[in-house]
User: Which sequence fits this backbone?
């Protein structure tokens, strides 16, 4: 055996020992014959497993809320939100980031998902990419990560070198860091300013963290992006007033949002949207605040996009 072979064997042994300690990798003997069950019985088992995930997330709400407040503070000064992960975790980050522009009218560079292996890894596996902390540093370096930004490392195990490396690099650059994992005492949480460990227990299929762990991560990322945008004034009540009307469905939704916010007639809504170039928030302000389109734009600018504050200013 060559020295290289010996080193590789030692690395494999160390990795196996690490995996043996992880809740997300634990084997469940009671499910060893799941393949003998009927389809409906397996579906019931999976459904029961999934039902435990929201409770696990609920147990980490204080940590999630603290992270969100810190993220919103940075983003209010122009900072970016960047997700970094590999495999399922990385894809969930890319998904969440890609949904922010149409939902909240964010700029494409404002919320970003970075995945080990690059865009190709979103649809197919890129072997070995997750094992490189250096690759994570290079990916974030290309983004010019700085003190106003937030980097969220996402990893079910909490040990993935790419996610841990991303958080460590971002922290060195002065960025706010969050580590989201599904095991306690994770290296990822330890490396971050805000550690969020949502422990959902062993998976139905041993080590398949696209299941409960993936569901938990999706729920937390939903909270982080949605509540951050609420804090940034991207909503009015529970209405998506910053929605980008880029297709017929969203244009219809824009009209409906203006109606729900104002109760105005169809003619008044169409007139307001036409005057404000389709900007929902501005249209609502012209109707409820009784101001013209240029004044609405000015008031919203002075209120940093917060519609309630702009309405208060219009009433003075």
Assistant:
């Amino acid at each position: 055996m060559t020295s290289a072979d010996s080193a590789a064997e030692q690395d494999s042994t160390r990795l196996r020992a690490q995996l043996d300690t992880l809740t997300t990798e634990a084997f469940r003997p009671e499910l060893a014959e799941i393949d003998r069950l009927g389809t409906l019985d397996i579906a019931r088992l999976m459904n029961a497993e999934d039902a435990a995930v929201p409770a696990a997330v609920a147990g980490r709400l204080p940590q999630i809320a603290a992270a969100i407040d810190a993220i919103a503070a940075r983003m209010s000064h122009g900072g970016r939100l960047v997700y970094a992960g590999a495999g399922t975790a990385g894809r969930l980050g890319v998904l969440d980031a890609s949904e922010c522009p149409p939902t909240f009218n964010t700029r494409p560079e404002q919320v970003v998902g970075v995945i080990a292996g690059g865009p190709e890894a979103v649809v197919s596996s890129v072997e070995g990419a997750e094992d490189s902390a250096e690759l994570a540093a290079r990916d974030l370096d290309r983004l010019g990560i700085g003190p106003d930004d937030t980097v969220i490392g996402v990893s079910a195990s909490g040990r993935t070198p790419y996610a841990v490396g991303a958080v460590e690099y971002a922290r060195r650059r002065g960025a706010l860091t969050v580590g989201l994992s599904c095991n306690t005492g994770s290296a990822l949480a330890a490396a971050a300013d805000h550690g969020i460990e949502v422990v959902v227990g062993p998976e139905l299929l041993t080590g398949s963290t696209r299941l409960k762990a993936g569901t938990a991560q999706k729920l937390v990322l939903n909270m982080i992006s949605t509540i951050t945008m609420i804090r940034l004034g991207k909503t009015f009540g529970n209405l998506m007033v910053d929605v980008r009307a880029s297709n017929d469905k969203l244009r219809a939704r824009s009209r409906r949002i203006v109606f729900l916010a104002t109760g105005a007639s169809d003619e008044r809504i169409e007139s307001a949207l036409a005057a404000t170039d389709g900007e929902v928030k501005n249209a609502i302000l012209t109707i409820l605040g009784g101001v013209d389109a240029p004044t609405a734009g000015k008031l919203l600018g002075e209120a940093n996009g917060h519609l309630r504050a702009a309405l208060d200013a219009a009433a003075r």
